[in-house]
Amino acid sequence: MDYFIHVAILASIWGILALSLELVVGETGLVSLAHAAFFGIGAYATAILLKIGLNFFFAAPLAMAVVAAVALAIGLVLSRFKGDIYMLASLGFTSIVYSIFLNWQSVTNGPLGLPAIPRASLFGFSFSTIMSYFVLVIIMLALVYAFCRWLTRSSFGRVLHAIREDEEATSIFGYRTTHYKLLVFVIAAMLAALAGGLYASYISFIDPSSFMVAASIFVLATIILGGLGNVRGAILGAFILIMFPEALRFVGFPADIAAQSRQLVYGLVLILLMLFRPQGIWGTFRL
Questions:
Q1: Residues 224, 238: contact at Cβ < 8 Å?
Q2: In 3D, which of 278, 27, 72 has the Cα closest to residue 193?
Q3: Using CB atoms within 10 A as the burial measure, which of 41, 176, 248, 274 is most buried?
Q4: Each residue's pLDDT tens digit, 82-130
Q5: What is the DSSP string of 75-91?
Q6: Which CATH number fits domain 2-276: 1.10.3470, 1.10.287, 1.25.40, 1.10.357?
Q7: CA separation, residue 61 to residues 24, 55, 146 (Å)
Q8: Does an H or E element contain 122, and which?
């Protein structure tokens, strides 16, 4: 039972990360590969603050503030670009951050990572058991989902949708589109930092390998699978991509080819889904 709860916790954390990227890609139409960097900065900042004795519910907001400052600086640079150049610039940022994690050993401990990260606690209660942490993560996921749903249905969200459809026409009507894109980029980065903090506190160990470019590509795949332009789709995509490979463990493939068979089935299902449902499961927008 603990194994299934463990997988559900990871899926929920990735669900928060997917919701944050959905705001940038699905709602605004900006293809960003910077999310692994914000996820990692949030994880490292939260871990360091926890290890010096700060409570998680103070450490996580401070980490989100740090990421907000970084996202603001990077967003000002990225706002100069559009389309493929925007994506490549965000990819470069993720590569730079990964290199910093790997080489700034006095802070990140380099490739050896940070061990013994404390679990979250509140008013003396420690979320040390797997079930209690599952409850915490589900509550956080619900709060982030409610916030994203409210944001996308607000007047701010409607401007984001207009930017996604036609940025030049939106700017003609007097909206400062650069400001809107920068703000949603910062908001998304802060939510990614929250996911990183939850991940660090749960796993109790982080190292740079968890925050490579592949993580950005994976979370992008989750929102494309779930469907762009729909916050429910972001959560669904994260749960499918995390849980489906684990479910294949119980199919009963021959032991000598079990791993290869799971990868084959997993890949075929994703390809077929994209062939017959290219907009994703709940998608309202296509890249």
A1: no
A2: 72
A3: 41
A4: 878 899 999 999 999 999 999 999 999 999 999 999 999 888 788 989 9
A5: HHHHTT--HHHHHHHHH
A6: 1.10.3470
A7: 21, 10, 18
A8: strand 121-122
